[in-house]
């Protein structure tokens, strides 16, 4: 994906439906794959995609882009990731109403991550500090670049690189 997506977002901010359709055509397959890595429920993925693109249409004027070292694709993923977490939280809240949930139950993001990896790797990931696990989720599972991960997590690119290197080292040690 390129800076062309940023130009499309700027056109969308002016109400250009053709630009919106083009952005959707270019990014929806990529976005669906990344969402499915975190959520196997096709209905939830479809709902999150719909809410994401609706938010893009409504909030395109708020996209800062290169001014904050962000890409349109990173911005799009940030919206989708937040929507997915919202769905997980709603599901968890509804489940709590029906069942008593123990106080040490994992967060929705952790449940999504553990469902995508094997038991041994999942246990090793659980042992990582949250900031290390977040970097791995963004870069490995979601396929974001260092810059996009930096924007998503709100930390400098150098910090993202350091955390990624540290997390990989710790995982190698845990799995050997």
Q: How does the overall form come out from the CA principal axes?
A: globular
The helix-strand sequence is HHHHHHHHH
User: What is the CATH C level class of the largest domain, in words?
Assistant: Mainly Alpha
The proportion of residues forming helix, as a percent range, comes to: over 70%
N-to-C span: 36 Å
CATH topology category name of the largest domain:
Rna Polymerase Sigma Factor, Chain: A
Tell me the radius of gyration: 17 Å
Poorly predicted sequence stretches spanning 5 or more consecutive residues: none
Counting helices, strands and paired strands, the structural category is: mainly alpha
What's the total helix number? 9
The share of residues in extended strands comes to under 5%
The CATH homologous superfamily of the largest domain is called RNA polymerase sigma factor, region 2, helix turn helix motif
Mean pLDDT: 79
Total strands: the figure is 0
Keywords:
transcription, Rna Polymerase Sigma Factor, Chain: A, 9 helices, 2 domains, globular, 176 residues, mainly alpha, transcription regulation, Arc Repressor Mutant, subunit A, RNA_pol_sigma_r2
Short summary:
The protein is mostly helical and 176 residues long. It is built from nine helices and no strands. The chain is globular and about 55 Å long.
Describe the overall structure.
InterPro entries: RNA_pol_sigma-70-like, RNA_pol_sigma-70_dom, RNA_pol_sigma70_r2, RNA_pol_sigma70_r4_t2, RNA_pol_sigma_r2, RNA_pol_sigma_r3/r4-like, WH-like_DNA-bd_sf. GO terms for molecular function: DNA binding; sigma factor activity. It comes from Kibdelosporangium aridum. Residues 120-170 form the RNA polymerase sigma factor 70 region 4 type domain. This is RNA polymerase sigma factor. The protein is mainly α and 176 residues long. The protein has two domains: 1-103, Rna Polymerase Sigma Factor, Chain: A (Orthogonal Bundle); 108-175, Arc Repressor Mutant, subunit A (Orthogonal Bundle). Helices cover 75% and strands 0% of the residues. It is built from nine helices and no strands. α6 (119-127) crosses α9. The longest helix has 27 residues, at 72-98. The mean pLDDT is 79.
């Amino acid at each position: 994906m390129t800076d062309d997506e940023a130009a499309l977002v700027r056109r969308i901010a002016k109400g250009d439906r053709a630009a919106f359709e083009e952005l959707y055509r270019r990014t929806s397959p990529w976005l669906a794959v990344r969402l499915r890595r975190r959520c196997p429920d096709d209905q939830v993925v479809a709902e999150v995609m719909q809410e994401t693109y609706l938010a893009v249409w409504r909030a395109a004027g708020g996209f800062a882009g290169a001014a904050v070292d962000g890409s349109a694709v990173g911005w799009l993923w940030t919206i989708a990731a937040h929507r997915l977490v919202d769905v997980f939280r709603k599901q968890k809240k509804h489940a709590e109403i029906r069942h008593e949930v123990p106080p040490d139950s994992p967060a929705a993001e952790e449940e999504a991550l553990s469902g995508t990896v094997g038991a041994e790797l999942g246990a090793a990931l659980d042992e990582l500090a949250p900031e290390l696990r977040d970097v791995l989720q963004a870069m490995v599972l979601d396929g974001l670049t260092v810059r996009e991960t930096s924007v998503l997590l709100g930390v400098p690119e150098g910090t993202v690189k350091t955390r990624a290197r540290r997390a990989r080292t710790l995982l190698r040690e845990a799995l050997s």
